[in-house]
Amino acid sequence: MIEGSNNLLLLTPEFVLAGLALLVFTADLIIPEGKKEWVGRIAVVGLIGLLFVTASTVMGITQPVYNNFLLVDHYSFVFKMIFITVGIITILMSEEFVKTNLTSQGEYYGLVLLAILGMNILVQSQEFLTAYISLELLSFCLYVLVGYSKFNPKSNEAAIKYIIFGTFSSAILLYGLSMVYSVVGSTLYSDIAQVLSTSGFMDPVAMLGITFIMIGIAFKLGIVPFHSWIPDVYEGAPIPVTAYLAIGAKIAAFAFLARVVIGVMLPAEELWSSWKIIFAILAISTMVIGNGIAIVQTKVKRMLAYSSIGHSGVLLSGIVVFGSTNGIVLESLGYYLVGYAVTSFAVFSAITAVTYNNNIELIKDFAGLSDEKPLLSASIAIGLFSLAGLPLFVGFTIKFYLFSSISIGGYLWLAGIAVLASLVSLYYYLIMIKSMYVDVPEQERAHADITVRWPMWIVIILSILMTIALGIYPDPLVNQLNEISDLLK
Amino acid sequence: MAVDCEAMNDFYNIMAFAIIALPLITSLGFMVVPNLASRTCWLISSIVSLVTFGISVLLFVSYDTMIGGTQFGFTVPWLSQGINITFGLGLTGISASMVLLNGIVLLGACLISTDIETRGRDFYVLLLALGGGVFGVFLSSDLFFFFLFYELAVLPMYLLIAVWGSSTNFGSFNRSKEYGAMKLMMVLVAASVLIWIGIIAIYVETYMNGTPTFVFDELRILSESGLFSSGFQNWVFLCFMIGFGVLSGLWPFHTWSPDGHVAAPTGVSMLHAGVLMKLGAFGIIQIGIVILPLGAQTWMPLLMVLGIVNVIYGAVSAMSQTDLKYIIGYSSVSHMGYVLIGAATLNSIGLSGAVLQMFSHGIMTALMFVLVGAIYHRAHTRDIYVLNGLIKTMPHICVLFIIAGFASLGLPGLSGFIAEFLIFLGVIKISLWIAALAVLGAALTAVYILRLIARTIVGPVDPKLENLPDANKYEKIVSVAFASILIAVGVWPALLLDSINVGISSIMSVL
To answer: Residue B226 region, left (φ>0) first, then alpha (ψ -120 to 50), else beta?
Structure first.
């Protein structure tokens, strides 16, 4: 078991990424003030290189590392590629914002890189302490990033809230872990699963421990009733960071949750059969409350925050069907996550472009945008229509695919609720679209001083194209994702 | 010879694909090309819709009524992994006439939209997306793409109405265009939720059977083999009936339709009342009845009763309206009731009548919206108490309006008569009482149409309206063409009925 499992070459992507982060921090010391965007560009080039490094070193390999503490497999490979891409896009869309609004610009990019490192290790860990440490690495980067706009009281408030909630949930996770350890004597997923599937189900301490671990993860993911930090943090954070939270951090937390459910809970059938009811209830409450509260929001970021809570609920309802006969739910979740990511980038990048140099935050402030900046408003509108699940955009296909696979797993009623939730979401997305396209602005040329530079154009145009392309021709992507379903078999 | 035949088939396959792809590609093209003037966009859109009209005629004419069934079909894998979706097109006897209808109405809607000045490009982006989506619905041969195109056709409606529409303000009665747009969009998408659930339920059933599929023909075979139990059919058909019914204005879910029609700009009203409402009835007939025949037999009595309510309620509502567009909006509700009744008879004559009524009403209501739009554009009011004696100032518009009105009240020689007559014949076989009520509905139609004509068209001329110009050349072309179609179908219904009957007989074989 120990022989041959310490092939450190398999961790090349992580070493390269850590080195890149250090390089970026060093570059920040050398590059003079006023040219700090080059720090970000170095990071982007490095990450693009990392995509190739990752593909060439770990693609198609399934092998444990460090005595089964980490597992390099197709699942982690796919998510690593997603995280790196999300990182590239986030950095590109941050450039103008960072330049205009933030001090200590160089470290911003370094922190984004370290957060990716945390995500990468998180998805391949097979052991709770490793997972916990990488989760903390991710979270600490995000705490700093959320509070990065240090002269903005809201950003400070958001950071403090985020730290308090984040550490609290980490503490709960750790407490649960210690309970489980006291029963099982190991923190490996496989060991825990083995004990749970034989005798552990009757053990109250282990049950409480598992519950606490799940609560900890639910906090990170923003599942109702552990969602209350999300709107405040999303609202206060600098908007590219909000995007990073809503896309990168959410995918990472979700990939972690799926891994824990597959590794720890599924083998213990008795345990899972009761937990999946809990997951179903959580999924429904998350979809209902997230989408329901989003309707009454007047601020764009808060609306998007609640909408992202709603999407977490949809994702959670996919987890409910784990372990049923259907083998495609994991790939449909992967497809959903990718589609959600490109669509959200279409929305967030355009909103970043609109708001980076002014104080626009209300939905009604977007009035008249379509006249002055047609492409930006088209990007937002396409993204919102896609999030609401309308074709030709990817949002329609991912929802159709996910809901079909949920139904095949025997939960047609849950899919029905999810479809209804997306109907509700259409309403508040339309309010935003109405503001941009129909309403008359209070002052003429309210958006005249927006300038959009090429890194942002790349992000916007790429997101729109991908939103349409992945909706019309998803076959190559789904084929890639198909292999991660093996995890469930 | 065989090679020739194959080559011809390939050609028609490409044409079937092109009729969907062309408007969508043009629409995307408009989005990326900067600084297009409204007029240029109008010209390009009109050319594109002329081409799609040509293709629709070609497809309709080439549909071989001797062979019947699904023609010009092809299937390519689209999502080979996982849930296994294929992209397939095919033309049946029913969809042939529906494609033709959409070809005609889309061309008309593009041509008369010359008055769109603000953000013309965006308007045509959305209008062509709508047109392409509707073609897609009629031509798809599997449930996934049927539903995709259906949602695609609904998607542009919000912006089309909210940006270019007009609000209604009668002092005591205000309806903003945003209200109409939002109501329409939310109701239609809510209806699609039911359809979505139904589609997924059918898919799950086939998946459990080990033969997962979305393809109509395969589903039909599975259904004939008795895969879907009657309990399953009953609840899924109810989902389809209400979901599709909402789109065709089924009472009591019809209120989105007059509000939406009234708020929409003329071109959009035409497409919307003319074609979009037909998608619902098409879905019930082509999908609901074929795949779920037992469910259809269970629920058809209810649909017939609701359809009768539609006819009477729509007509009574139209009688009490004072806004020209609302009158036509409610008349659409009333006329779609006939379609639903015809579908609910489940006999071949009633179903043929229903499909013919879909076509006839599509052309007729589109014509009415052209004319009402023209009147509103000139007089800036749609209040029938203000408009008077228009025949003296706008003879062209008024004469055509009278023709459309007569088609609407079922005058022999016009297409509405044949359709309604067939429906009555079908209904009589089921129940004499319902047939009597349906005929009563036709009488009520006469009341509100004649009231409308008496109020606005004849009578003394209002001096304020004296100097209004008559229709412009595009309105003339479109309205004369549409009126000729009404007359042509009225005197020679076999033109359409041949292919419709082929489609219906294929449906009848499952019942």
So the answer is: left
Total count of domains within chain A: 1
Q: Do B243 and B319 contact (CB within 8 A), yes or no?
A: no
Among the partner-chain residues B81, B144, B149, the one whose CB lies closest to the CB of A479 is B81
| Mutation for testing the A interface, residue in B83, B119, B211, B213 having most A CBs under 10 Å | B83
A300 lies in some domain = yes
Residues of chain A positioned with their CB less than 8 A from the CB of B117:
none
Strands (DSSP E) along B324-422, which ranges? none
Q: Which domain holds residue B14?
A: 2-508
CA separation for the pair B208, A410 (Å, rounded): 10
Minimum distance, in Å, between the CA of residue B63 and any CA atom of chain A: 29
How many residues are listed for chain A in this entry? 489
> What is the Cα gyration radius of chain B?
22
Asked if the C-beta of B151 comes within 8 angstroms of chain A's C-beta atoms, the answer is: yes
Q: Does B210 touch chain A (CB under 8 A)?
A: no
Residue A105 bridge partners (DSSP): none
Per-residue pLDDT of chain B (511 residues; tens, 9 = 90+): 344 556 667 888 888 888 888 998 888 888 877 777 888 888 888 899 999 999 888 888 888 777 777 777 788 888 877 777 888 888 888 888 899 999 999 999 888 888 777 777 888 888 899 999 999 999 888 888 999 999 888 888 888 888 887 777 766 677 788 888 888 888 988 898 899 999 989 988 888 888 888 888 888 888 888 888 888 888 899 999 999 989 888 888 888 888 888 888 888 888 888 898 888 889 988 888 888 888 888 888 888 889 889 888 988 888 888 888 888 888 888 888 889 988 888 888 888 889 999 999 999 899 988 888 888 888 777 777 777 777 777 888 888 888 888 888 878 878 888 888 888 888 888 888 888 888 888 888 888 888 888 888 887 777 777 777 777 888 888 888 888 988 888 888 888 888 888 888 888 887 7
* Pairs of residues, one from chain A and one from chain B, whose beta carbons lie less than 8 Å apart: 102
**Smallest CA–CA distance from B25 into chain A, residue:** A392
This prediction has a pTM of 0.90
Cβ–Cβ below 8 Å for A404 and B203: yes
In B, minimum Cα distance to A484 occurs at: B82
CA–CA gap between residue B358 and residue B340 (Å, rounded): 10
Give the closest of A370, A396, A408 to B151, CB-based: A396
Domain with A454, as residue range(s), is 269-489
Residue A420, min C-alpha distance to chain B (Å): 7
> Strands (DSSP E) along A172-306, which ranges?
none
Based on the structure, what is the number of domains in chain B? 1
Q: Which of chain B's residues have a Cβ under 8 Å away from the Cβ of A295?
A: none
